[in-house]
Amino acid sequence: MKDEIIDKRKKHEREHIESKSASIMSKLFELPEFEKAGVVLFYASKRDEVQTLEMIQAALDKGKKIVLPITVVEGKNLILSEIKSVRELVEGAFGVLEPANFVPVEERLIELAVVPGVAFDSQGDRIGHGMGYYDKLLKKLKCPIIGLAFEFQLVDDIPEEEHDVRVHKIITEKRVIECE
User: Fold this and answer.
1) Per-residue pLDDT tens for 101-139?
2) 165: left (phi > 0), else alpha (psi -120 to 50), else beta?
3) What is the DSSP string of the chain?
4) What is the CATH number of domain 2-178?
5) Which of 2, 50, 56, 152 is 20 to 30 A from 10, comparing alpha carbons?
6) Domain parsing of the chain, residue ranges
7) Residue 86: what pLDDT?
């Protein structure tokens, strides 16, 4: 299932990715959880994921404090760093953009987490890339967690594993799903 969805995402046309991402952004920005959050954890999107760089800059322009993860390969951890602009991002581990300068932010300060996934189900289970980085981080957060996905990334059921952390909502280009 994971490889099938990754392949589908890779074949997704650029203009569709951008238009669907814009729709997802408008739904995210309308959520009460987003409106009231002062400190938001985002991810820097890869080429075929829901695009977040425009979201990040728009959130910064709205006065939000934006935090992005930095990958620490040894130990498979994500550490959190504040950014002031998307221009501060450089390529890090696995080709993912990360803050160039480490400005530490404690997990307890995050008021909303916006996370990626390869696939999601309506219960809030997610499949990532299988390395466990996000699950480790999400276990430490005490805030709403929102997954961003294209509609085709939704599946009927993802087998839940002990270490998995569910998202509370999923936003696609078509809808906002309140997870059960």
Assistant:
1) 999 999 999 999 999 999 999 999 999 876 789 989 999
2) beta
3) -HHHHHHHHHHS-HHHHHHHHHHHHHHHHHSHHHHH-SEEE--PPPTTSPP-HHHHHHHHHTT-EEEEEEEETTTTEEEEEEES-GGGEEE-GGG-EEESS--B--GGG-SEEEE--SEE-TTS-EE-SSS-HHHHHHHH--S-EEEE--GGGB-S-----TT----SEEE-SS-EEE--
4) 3.40.50.10420
5) 56
6) 2-178
7) 96
Band (4; pLDDT cuts 50, 70, 90)? confident
- The single residue listed with the structure tokens 């953009």 is 97
Burial state string for 97-118 with b = 16 or more CB within 10 A and e = fewer than 16: bbbeeeeebebeebbbbbbbbb
pLDDT of residue 159: 86
